[in-house]
Every structure is written in structure tokens, then in C-alpha cells.
Amino acid sequence: MRQIILDTETTGLEPSQGHRIIEIGAVEMVNRRFTRNDFHQYLNPDRDSDPGALAVHGLTTEFLSDKPRFEDVVDDFIAFVGDAELIIHNADFDTRFIDAELARLGRGKLIDHCLRITDSLKVAREMHPGKRNSLDALCDRYEISNAHRTLHGALLDSQLLGEVWLAMTRGQNSLVIDIDDTGADAGAAGLRVGSLDLSSLRVLPANAEELAAHEAYLAELDKAVGGECTWRSLPSAQV
Questions:
Q1: Gyration radius of the chain over CA positions
Q2: Which segments constitute the Exonuclease domain (predicted)?
């Protein structure tokens, strides 16, 4: 499964007011593994950023003045997101801006060029109702370091969101069984098994009915092999 973790930075809050995208960052994952095949592009918006937006991303008009425009990279962008699920935090914001850029070029909408769009903010709110679910808050909750994030950046935020997404959708965090590509320390099967703390797990002993059913099953197996089952010759503590 191919997934793209995507983020943008913009000159302001509303594309309907003429605000534009100034940075796109997108990180590729295939089968829940980062491929390092990323898409990152600064864009010349042909306008200044609002002071509030500039304080967030720090991308000045001077810095962006020699960068390509969206129309110059649109084909590469569409090719990159094609056939993938896009995972975007607060997807409505980024989608509105990308849709506006595509509309200027008569290229449809973002959803026309990808498999589907998943809003990680909505997923986080369902998992953690009543709690803060900003990217910073989720990094803290899942113990993902964002100490190097002093300003917002589309590529950095996509990388952090990718780590958060894996943590949110991993399932049982304490029972870790993962595939090790190298097979190191994993035996022939290439499995890496995390250390487990079993001290807090409840042990439910079998009741009399379950024990009787188990004994009947073993008796049938023993009968099928002519009474030569190895466990019948072992002390019960070893079986």
C-alpha cells in the first residue's frame, strides 16, 4: 500500500482571498515503511505572506522570489501523488489551497489525482476525544521528538506526521512483531520480536469443562497414532 504524508505552507489562511501555496512537502510510505522518495518544493507565490503566516513559516518574499511557480511543478506533483492515499493533518485546509492552485490551471481537484484523502486530525480526534490533537500535541503523546521544529516547514511537518501516523495506527504498542528486511537477529523468518513485559497480563486458568475437552482432544490424537504420542510419556509439568 502506497501512502503519501503531505503538508503545505501558505501566504495566509484563505485561498479565496488570493493566498497561495509557498511550500509543498510530501513523504512516501510503502507498506508502512518510509522510502525516502520524497517530494519537496518551495514555490514563488507572486505576493507577500501575511505577517501572521510569515511568523509561522519564516519564508520571506525575497527567499521565494527565484523559486518555481506551481504551474512549473504541477505535473511532477500530480505524478507523485497518483495512486496513493494522502494523509494530511487538517486536510480541509491543505486541500482547499491545492484545489485552488489546480483550478487556476484547469487541472481538476486533488481528489481527482489520488486514491483517497485521509484527515489525520479527524482520526486523532476520534482516538483522543476532548484532548489537544495538534501535531505538537500528538508528538508529545506518542513520544516523538520535535525539538528541532522551531518554525513550521512542510517537509519537516510531513516527516513528523508520518511518525505520528505510524504510532497512532500501530495497534498494540507493547506487542511488537515487525519484519526485519535484513533478517539480522531474527532467524530464517526475518522476524524481529520486541521485548515484552508480561507482568501485567492476566492469566485465566481453564475451567473443568475446558480441561475435560482438552483431555478428550488429546485422547483422540493419541488414538489416531496408536498410543505413541510423546507427551504421554512426559511428566505433566513438562507438557
A1: 26
A2: 2-174
Domain ranges of the chain: 2-171, 208-238
- The topology (CATH level 3) of 2-171 is Nucleotidyltransferase; domain 5 (3.30.420)
The tens-digit pLDDT sequence of the chain (239 residues) is 999 999 999 999 999 999 999 999 999 999 999 999 999 999 999 999 999 999 999 999 999 999 999 999 999 999 999 999 999 999 999 999 999 999 999 999 999 999 999 999 999 999 999 999 999 999 999 999 887 766 678 999 999 999 999 999 986 444 444 444 444 444 444 444 444 555 556 667 888 888 888 888 777 777 776 776 666 666 654 44
Which amino acids are annotated as binding site, given as ranges?
Answer: 7, 9, 57, 157
CA angle 79, 82, 84 (to 5 degrees): 140
Annotated binding site for a divalent metal cation: 7, 9, 157
For the chain, the first-to-last Cα distance in angstroms comes to: 42
Binding residues for substrate: 7, 9, 57, 157
Whole-number Cα distances in Å, 76 to 73, 80, 212: 5, 6, 66
If you search the block for the grid coordinates 504551474, which residue do you land on?
71
The model's pTM is 0.70
Q: CB 200: neighbour CB atoms within 10 A? A: 6
| Catalytic residue annotation | 152
